[in-house]
Amino acid sequence: MITKSELDSLVLKYENKDFIKDDPVQFIHRFKNKKDVELAGFIASLLAYGSRVQFIKKLDDLFINIAHNEPLNFILNFEPELIGDFNYRFGKPVDFISIFKILKELYRTTDGLEELFNYGHQQGKMFETVVDYFYARADKSVGQGFYHMIPNPRNNGAMKRMCMYLRWMVRKSSVDVGIWKFMKPSELYIPLDVHVGRISRQMGLLTRKANDFKAVEELTDKLREFCPDDPVKYDFAMFGYGVNHK
Q: What integer pLDDT is reported at residue 104 of this predicted model?
């Protein structure tokens, strides 16, 4: 099994600003206003699957050409015609329209995503609370793309993109912005994808073969042994190492 000192050396190598430009975390670093940052992060996390080159290109198009680098203003004043035929893989225009309409209601009636996640955290069912909010308000016409971008945690999936989003919002580092204070970094779960799953098994940190939420819990618990206060600090290190050592 890999040692703590070996993992810590990977953190020093991979968790730095040089890697932001190739990661979806880059989109939260484009903005200063807190609500712009959290909205940019949430939207970026929805599309963070498949080819990194392709979804970063799509997100560039969305933020620059459609939202005009004003995520909060875009959401508060959203109308379906603003996105035209914008789509990405499973996500069709109707799916994005529904998500943006729900975000519009959220930000016009509450303090936004932080309040929603905080409420779920207080209930002890954060993922379920957030997902149920979106499911209850989804247009009847949404398809597979909507439910792929906002998956149901009750299906025991890894919830990789939501775990990643929380890492961005809660941790404070050279990569993560740490603007949400209602929970501690020690409570975060590792964002588990095929790269992190493969490399963590090779490192002897994960025995479960499926990349599901039980694997997320097993790997996070193991990483807590190395760093109880901040177990997911190893995420960027393992992901970067996994991508570069296929």
A: 98
